[in-house]
């Protein structure tokens, strides 16, 4: 049984423990990172220094394969979605992810605020700037370039969180913080960031080198990079959000964007696991081993993927029943059936409480306002949709309609 070095420290004598560490660090299945950290114990940085490494044990290999298989499954399921629902569905996931990312850091945001920020992005000159950068970053997560310059880390910070940073946490260095920063869980200090902007720059450059030159398995590599970024803690505030987006951008290019944006959501559901995994690495008796941290991170990632797979599979089954219902219905015109199919599909994949404006339905159906007006009147008269507001006109599916469509 492969156990944590920090546990073996108490089970083995000193010589056997040292031999086990040497065996792991120099084994054929070991990957060294050339990234070094200082030890941390009882709220203080120790004099120990360790090179981060991990061993590609069977449990880790299995999780790596599981994540890849999940990603392939997600791609296949997304391919089955009607074209018009792909963007609204992804927007729903973005909103869930962004809210989770904020919640982890104690930043208050509602789904309505984040949804409004997405709508503002569609305007040439957005008026309300709150959360605009956050949503823009998520929306284009697979297009974020690899981090190859120090300025790239600062650019992510500026785009993502700078608008929400309090005055007492504003940066005092050229690109990063100059002063001291620590993380406290309410009872004790759990981490102290690298001290001094020059030292931060040196270690971020080491991270760039690792990401650029490493020939290690990509999923492991990206999770190692996430930890090392959080270890450096280049900013006074916003490190968690930028760090999770950093790893998300690499995951989006390597897997697909759906897997990438579930990472914060999965972490938010398992915060204790996430923080414990981060905090165990610099413990002196762990000696820089990341094997169990990687197992925890890939489990979180896989669980997030499984959530998306289940959501897609259930909703696609619902869609089959809706299709069958509409096919056999004779009381509506074909054009009204087509529009109802669009509206119901959006409600299934996004939210049953969602209100769609007439403009929303025009965009989705590609019909003129005049033509659509007649169709919506037909759907109202048949009691499939209800008018929720008159200015602007907004509709939702009538209560009980979805249940009726899926009960046959």
TrEMBL record:
The active site is at 233. Transmembrane segments: none annotated. ATP binds at residues 237-244, 274-275. Gene3D superfamilies: Fido-like domain. It comes from the Bacteria. The keyword ATP-binding applies. SUPFAM superfamilies: Fic-like (SSF140931). One of its GO terms (molecular function) is ATP binding. This is Cell filamentation protein Fic. It comes from Caryophanon latum.
